[in-house]
Amino acid sequence: MRISNQPNVDKFTIKHNGKVYLTTLSVVVVMLAVTDIVFALDSIPAVFAISKEPLVVYTSNIFAVLGLRSLFFLLRGAVDKFDYLQQGIAIVLVFIGLKMLAEIWNFHMPVWVSLIVIVTCLAGSIVYSILFDKKLPVKPTETTES
Fold first, then answer.
1. Per-residue model confidence as pLDDT tens digits over 94-138
2. Pairwise CA distance, residues 82 & 126, whole Å
3. What whole-number distance in Å separates Cα of residue 72 and Cα of residue 78?
4. SS3 category, 13
5. How far, CA to CA in Å, does 97 sit from each of 13, 21, 41, 58, 124?
6. How does DSSP assign 72-96, residue by residue?
7. CB–CB of 48/58 below 8 Å?
8. Is pLDDT of 40 > 80?
9. Cα distance between the two ends of the chain
10. Calpha distance 131→135 (Å, rounded)
11. Cα torsion for 100, 80, 68, 48, to the nearest 10°?
12. CA 120/CA 123 separation, integer angstroms
């Protein structure tokens, strides 16, 4: 695929010297579609951990694709605001992974316990970010005139 370096916002392709080139807009649209597919495939194991009913699996993936982009931008803004939210999200993901692995050995955790752990990790990371801000104000240096 040939990709043009010329910024052209209103077209997906342009012709140059008789050859068709993709614009950066078309590349962005393709990357957004690929991201949606990756998010949908990523959520399939989590859905199977909850239910094996085909209707639940299909509908949850459809709603995941519809809502993940807006959730991503919401989390991106929140991660910029709260310094330790990434660590809280990482702990939640590790917990969910361990919970899914524990089901191999027939260890089933109640849903309410999982919700408490998730809410505690996210709320704790937000509170910790508020109490212990990484971005400490920089003191201005004193200038002395002689």
1. 888 888 788 888 888 888 898 899 899 999 999 999 998 776 555
2. 6
3. 10
4. strand
5. 42, 43, 15, 21, 20
6. HHHHHHHHHH-TTHHHHHHHHHHHH
7. no
8. no
9. 65
10. 11
11. 0
12. 5
Alpha helices in the chain (DSSP H): 24-50, 54-81, 85-102, 111-131
Specify the pLDDT at position 22.
Answer: 83
Residues 6 or more apart whose CB falls under 8 angstroms from that of 31 comprise none
Count of residues making up the chain: 146
Q: Helix (H, G, I), strand (E, B), or coil: what is residue 125?
A: helix
- Report the alpha-carbon angle 9-14-16, nearest 5: 135
Query: Which residues contact residue 134 at a Cβ distance below 8 angstroms, ignoring those fewer than 6 apart?
Result: 83
DSSP state of 10: T
Structure-block tokens of residue 81: 């605001």
Whether the CB-CB separation of 85 and 122 falls below 8 Å is answered with yes
- Cα dihedral angle (113, 116, 122, 127), rounded to 10 degrees? -140
Mean pLDDT estimate for the chain: 79
